[in-house]
């Protein structure tokens, strides 16, 4: 089961291209100035089976969509079940790319199997004093947009060129 809060059908600010965005419910991080406080309670949102959620996400994909973004909340709290979800979606649509937002550092999550399934990780906590509006894909300057394939190949965080 996966606990989620919302799904946005079309976003252009949660990764490259037009994307379906899945907002996971629940977060134990404590970012000062959290921009999604409603998504923090672990008991909020609703539970859904991975197979049902995959069907819902796939139904929202149009020929214009580039991929799916996992945001939150803290998706890594449900990373094991997200592996199942991504695997189901990819078996139907291997052409879609996945972006994963996490308040953790890449180095903290790099060992999880989900990293073998996602293309980009936007990492790090939101830090209000470092708020940065120069890039639509993150909120504060400490956060990084990382090319997961290159990062795994080189064994260190590699920023995505875009
Ligand atoms: S990771 Fe996101 S939801 Fe969690 S505290 Fe930070 S800004 Fe809020």
Account of the protein in words:
There is one protein chain. The chain is α/β, with parallel strands linked by helices and 162 residues long. The chain has a single domain (2-154), classed as TIM Barrel. Helix content is 22%, strand content 25%. A 7-stranded mixed beta sheet has the order 3-1-2-4-5-6-7. Helix 2 links the parallel strand 4 and strand 5 (97-101). The radius of gyration is 15 Å and the shape is globular. The chain binds iron/sulfur cluster (SF4). Residues 27, 29-31, 34-36, 39-40, 72-74, 103, 125-126 line the site of iron/sulfur cluster.
Strand content: 15-25%
Strand order of the largest sheet: 3-1-2-4-5-6-7
User: Structural class, please?
Assistant: alpha/beta
Number of helices: 4
Per CATH, the class reads Alpha Beta
Mean pLDDT: 97
Which molecules are bound in this entry?
Answer: iron/sulfur cluster
Features of this protein?
TIM Barrel; 162 residues; 7 strands; seven-stranded mixed β-sheet; alpha/beta; binds iron/sulfur cluster; 4 helices
Topology, please?
Elements: E1 2-11, E2 18-24, E3 46-48, H1 50-60, E4 65-71, H2 79-92, E5 97-101, H3 106-109, E6 120-123, E7 144-147, H4 148-154
Residues 27, 29-31, 34-36, 39-40, 72-74, 103, 125-126 line the site of iron/sulfur cluster (SF4).
